[in-house]
Amino acid sequence: MKRLYLDIGNTRAKWLLDEGGQFKRGLVELNGEHDEAALQAIASDVCFVAVSCVKGDEYVSSLASTVERLWGVAISVAVTLANQQGLTCAYNDPTRLGIDRWLVMLAAWDRYKKPICVVDCGSAITIDLVSSSGLHMGGYILPGLRIGVESLLRGTDKVVVGFDNLNEATLALGQNTTEAVYNGAMFSLNANVLAAMESLRERSKEGGCVLMLTGGDGRLVSELTTLESVYDEDLVLHGLKLYFDTN
Fold this sequence. Notes:
By secondary structure, the protein is of the alpha/beta class. It is globular and about 55 Å long. It folds into two domains: 3-77, ATPase, nucleotide binding domain (Nucleotidyltransferase, domain 5, 2-Layer Sandwich), CATH 3.30.420; 83-245, Nucleotidyltransferase, domain 5. The chain is built from seven helices and twelve strands. A five-stranded mixed beta sheet has the order 3-2-1-4-5, with helices on both faces. The longest helix has 27 residues, at 177-203. It has helices spanning 35-40, 57-71, 99-112, 145-154, 177-203, 218-224, 235-246, and strands at 2-8, 13-19, 22-28, 48-53, 75-77, 83-84, 87-88, 116-121, 124-130, 136-143, 210-214, 230-231. Helix 3 crosses helix 7. The model has no long low-confidence stretch (mean pLDDT 91). 37% of the residues lie in helices and 25% in strands. 36% of the residues are buried.
């Protein structure tokens, strides 16, 4: 009995295959045009397909048709809930909170049951705070590192850098324009994370606050930040599996 979990982001998709407690995982390109071949390469047959998707309804409908045609099953699409596993959404209308944000909070809360700052560093950067009682206190949405740099370059004529070395950004003062731009983007993100953690500590008098990072640039942030942190590259997938295991 194979169960497939798909985390479909803005720029890439990740998958987790549960074969009776034996797990496989990887990356897959899902863009609508060649989805059937890409999915078939993961598994020849599955009995359940769970999806977390930040793309629009049109793509989700197309994916549903592909999965039905390929494996004869309907996809189960995760949507943000008001409450789940002791976690409470801050939004008056929970469906307005991105499912990726809900799933990373759900996974982090299930793991620690402590005040948590969850930072997802993808195309956009999301920062969400969760109290020791499981209350989502709210969060922030910021431009991702690459989007931030691209925006800077579009608005200036003489600042010219490439993107080949963005993963080499540090918190050091730049000694040339490229370093100043790359490191400036990282410095800004780190400052926001520091401020969010300070806010969490002020709201959580009992202490024990946890900083959890995920997303494509999360590892780099975890290596550079001055704060103790935990990095989990598959936090959305862990949350997605938990979502359907407990709902």
